[in-house]
Write a structure and sequence with these properties.
The complex is a heterodimer of chains A (278) and B (484).
Chain A: H1 5-12, H2 18-30, H3 35-47, H4 53-64, E1 80-85, H5 92-105, E2 110-115, H6 122-133, E3 136-138, H7 146-159, E4 164-169, H8 177-191, E5 198-204, H9 210-222, E6 226-230, H10 239-248, E7 252-256, E8 264-266, H11 269-276
Helix pairs in contact in A: 2-3, 3-4, 5-6, 7-8, 8-9, 9-10
Chain B: H1 5-19, H2 24-40, H3 45-61, H4 63-68, H5 72-89, E1 103-109, H6 115-128, E2 133-138, H7 145-156, E3 160-161, H8 172-186, E4 190-195, H9 203-216, E5 220-226, H10 232-243, E6 248-252, H11 261-270, E7 274-278, E8 286-288, H12 291-298, H13 304-314, H14 317-329, H15 335-347, H16 351-356, H17 364-372, H18 375-386, H19 390-394, H20 401-411, H21 415-436, H22 460-470, H23 477-483
Parallel strand pairs in B: 1-4, 1-5, 2-3, 2-4, 5-6, 6-7
Antiparallel strand pairs in B: 7-8
Helix pairs in contact in B: 1-2, 1-5, 2-3, 3-5, 5-12, 6-7, 8-9, 10-11, 14-22, 15-18, 18-20, 20-21
Classes of the chains: A alpha/beta (278), B alpha/beta (484).
The complex binds guanosine-5'-triphosphate (GTP) and magnesium ion.
The site of magnesium ion (MG) has 5 residues of chain A, from helix 5.
Chain lengths: 278, 484
């Protein structure tokens, strides 16, 4: 993996200047990995023998990734439930649509719950996706109780023995404890009917260092099991996802690369790491 | 959880203070702390380096003066702070109304930045100032963005021009143009055009944004950006700046705890001012931008002002006035008050975040308490107090064994939980009495958990005023509590 070919060439040629190291630091910082991690990598590069730098960095970065399974779970005897959570505007509803499309392509039956009863027209937004993708969407009244929508959907999914139930929730800042409690309640209510198998935290690739606190608090409230990193079709590198995975051990499971339902990819570590500093 | 930035600063400044005379090497040291603080706050590296250069040249200029000052560390801090405020707020200004109405405001930005919600907030704000805004639904891309704007418009009673259903149907350029025409005809003095989110790297959609701009000749193009963004802020802002251009910036989601260093990067790189800040999901969560608050937020020194406002908002004025009266008149602080405090704390957001907003909260003893504080405890206490009768809440001394047993059963807790709550409450009551006699600095309603110090006078501004008005209520605490 030739991450830093330019710098490496110079190091090998014995002609690195302060400017080269600065460029290297810039690339690391620009990825949103965080200043501390960036400094660690620079240290590592300075410490390593010139022909081993590449491998050393690659190994270090890979070691920050977790060994956890990156696939969606599947239960053959009951519906598998997937809860979608995250701060406002990260792409939860769109990611829900993408997951529907992905699962349907794999010949699974899907039911969706529109548990964002708060944001104006959020239910309509998901309903539009539902009709485009031909899946049923369970909805409730505007400003109603999101947990009861989730409960109703779980009951339906169980009765009809649907393969997957996906629950889209309202965006909420992790600092609002009332809203975080609400999320915990949604989870507990679903669990009265079906176990919650997967909780996906949707993180926007443009997110800066605040992403780490976000992940920690969401983890505390609803036991997040995976990340969806969205908007990777933009210019942001999405290094915050690696920082989250390193810090919290939550595996990145999917990458969002656009606004249509097909724009979802399974996480590919090598491609991701390569993209971080390009 | 808190990478104690402010602790780091305080450490660095403390060591400066102890040195008395400053040498350039000391300045280098503090500069490097500031550098890492800015990077942790997501300020772009190029902007950080520019900032540090400026800082060094300013401190060099005044080094002799600095050494004469009684507190050189503070003097340096002032330089840092004023430099930040200068960049953040140098050219702050209001919306420029067009000489010939309608004034056209065009919103642009990335997907999910918060444009549609902002359109509603801005319309509501302008309407309150006596304008007659019209909202134009030119986001025809994201499913039901048009519906969203319509719902928002209806809730604030601002008309929405939405001739196309959206969801991929309709031409945003035509809609925008027709919207302005409609406003002219119907004599709206302001038009706010909402557009679809787009990526800086999407040449095709950037071209479309340009076409919308040219079709409506906006008086103000506002670039809407999420306060949580990281290092990409500069690149994307530049892409929009070169692509469509903008006149001012709006920061959204400032009610979170992101330090918002992007604000500094974008203003520095584009030279455009930040005009407004969005601070919540309600239409009224919208304010003029305050460069000074942002400066201390970026430095990780806490945002006291915002905290005070949140505290004020969390307490309804009645609760606040009740507590205030009790405090002033020396009445007994009851379990009901205790519960009101808890509820207010819950509303105010997570305990840990709250403390993070207070300078110094990350250091020493405070930090320890912070780490030990258990939010689940709040819920537990709440359920216990709610199982008490009004009499018990007013006078916990009546709580004998059988009452405690009943409360434990009613709240699904153990008798030992009830006992420990009563003990803690008695503690708090003592603290309250001490404060009244002038020994503590904690304002009423803010002293949970007991022993934790809050900055003086914090949420009082609003509350204090109400006191006099309500003084005529019953002097008997029990009676008063029942008056509720
Ligand atoms: N370019 C790009 N845009 C995306 C991606 N995912 C989502 N979006 C866009 O981001 C915007 C917000 O997406 P939503 O799915 O509504 O986000 P959300 O998290 O559900 O938002 P709230 O429910 O309001 O918190 C929309 O304009 C989406 O089209 C992605 O991977 N790439
Ligand atoms: Mg949504």
């Amino acid at each position: 993996m030739a991450l830093f070919s330019k710098l490496l060439q110079k190091i090998r040629g014995g002609s690195t200047s302060a400017g080269d190291w600065q460029e290297f630091e810039e690339a690391l910082i620009a990825s949103d990995l965080g200043a501390k991690s960036a400094a660690e990598i620079i240290e590592l590069a300075k410490r390593s023998k010139s022909d081993e730098i590449d491998t050393a960095i690659t190994n270090a970065l890979s070691a920050w990734l977790s060994n956890a399974n990156r696939e969606l779970p599947f239960n053959s005897d009951r519906p598998t439930t997937v809860l979608i959570v995250g701060v406002n505007g990260t792409g939860k509803t769109t990611s829900t649509a993408k997951l529907i499309s992905f699962l349907k392509q794999n010949k699974h039956s899907v039911l969706v719950a529109a548990a964002d009863t708060f944001r104006a027209a959020a239910v309509e937004q998901l309903a539009t996706w539902g009709s485009r993708l031909e899946v049923d969407v369970v909805t409730g009244p505007a400003n109603g109780d999101p947990a009861s929508v989730a409960f109703e959907a779980a009951t339906k999914a169980k009765a009809a023995n649907i393969d997957y139930l996906i629950i889209d929730t309202a965006g909420r800042l992790h600092t609002k404890s009332g809203l975080m409690d609400e999320l915990g309640k949604i989870r507990r209510v679903i669990e009265k009917v079906l176990p919650v198998d997967e909780v996906l935290l949707v993180v926007d690739a443009t997110t800066g260092q605040n992403g780490i606190v976000q992940a920690k608090i969401f983890m505390e409230s609803v036991a997040v099991t995976g990340l969806i990193l969205t908007k990777m079709d933009g210019s942001a590198k999405g290094g915050i996802a690696l920082a989250i995975e390193r810090e919290c051990g939550i595996p990145i499971k999917f990458i969002g690369t656009g606004e249509s339902a097909a724009d979802l990819e399974a996480f590919d570590p090598e491609r991701y790491l390569n993209g971080l500093f390009s | 959880m808190f990478e104690s930035l402010s602790a780091k600063f305080q450490g660095a400044f403390a060591s400066l203070r102890s040195k008395g005379r400053l040498k350039p090497a000391d300045i280098d040291e503090i500069a490097s702390e500031i550098r890492s603080a800015l990077l942790d706050s997501d300020v772009a590296l190029s902007v950080v380096d520019f900032f540090i250069e400026q800082l060094k040249s300013r401190t060099d200029e005044v080094l002799t003066d600095l050494n004469k000052s009684t507190n050189p560390a503070n003097a340096i801090f002032e330089i840092v702070n004023s430099l930040l405020i200068e960049i953040l707020g140098g050219s702050a200004r209001r919306i420029r109304l067009a000489k010939k109405p309608p004034t056209v405001i065009l919103l642009t930005g990335l997907q999910g930045a918060g444009k549609t919600s902002l359109a509603g907030k801005l319309a509501n704000y302008l309407k309150a100032q006596g304008n007659t805004p019209l909202l134009v639904a030119s986001d025809l891309q994201r499913p039901n963005a048009v519906t969203q704007l319509q719902v928002v418009g209806e809730s604030i009673r601002v008309p929405v021009f939405a001739p196309e259903p959206g969801n991929g149907v309709g031409d945003p350029v035509k809609v925008a143009k027709a919207g302005v025409k409609f406003a002219e005809d119907k004599l709206h003095n302001i038009v706010i055009v909402d557009t679809a989110g787009r990526l800086g790297v999407d040449a095709q959609l950037m071209e479309q944004a340009k076409q919308i701009r040219d079709a409506v000749s906006p008086d103000e193009v506002l670039y809407v950006v999420d306060a949580m963004v990281g290092q990409d802020a500069v690149r994307t802002a530049q892409a929009f700046f070169e692509g469509v251009g903008f006149d001012a910036i709006v920061l959204t989601k400032l009610d979170g705890d992101a330090r918002g260093g992007a604000a500094l990067s974008i203003t520095q790189v584009t030279g455009k001012p930040i005009m407004f800040a969005a601070t919540g999901e309600n239409v009224t969560d919208f304010d003029l931008f305050h460069p000074d608050r942002m400066a201390s937020r970026i430095l990780g020194l806490g945002d006291i002002q915002t905290l005070a406002e949140q505290a004020k908002g969390a307490f309804d004025s009645d609760t606040a006035s009740k507590l205030e009266t009790k405090f002033v008149s020396g009445e007994d602080f009851t379990l009901d008050d205790f519960l009101a405090q808890l509820e207010a704390m819950k509303k105010m957001g997570s305990m840990t975040k709250l403390l993070g907003m207070i300078p110094g909260a990350n250091s020493g003893a405070m930090k320890k308490q912070l780490e030990q504080f258990d939010e689940g405890e709040l819920v537990k206490t709440q359920s216990i107090v709610q199982s008490m009768t009004p009499l018990e809440r007013n006078d916990p001394k009546v709580l004998n064994g059988s009452r405690r047993m009943r409360i434990a059963n009613g709240s699904g807790r153990q008798v030992s939980d009830v006992n420990s709550l009563v003990d803690r409450f008695t503690q708090a009551q003592k603290v309250m009495k001490q404060m009244r006699s002038g020994k503590g600095a904690m304002p009423p309603g803010m002293q949970i958990p007991p022993g934790m110090q809050m900055p003086q006078g914090m949420p009082q501004q609003g509350a204090a005023k109400v006191v006099n008005k309500k003084k005529s209520r019953s002097g008997n605490p029990a009676k008063r509590a029942l008056e509720g």
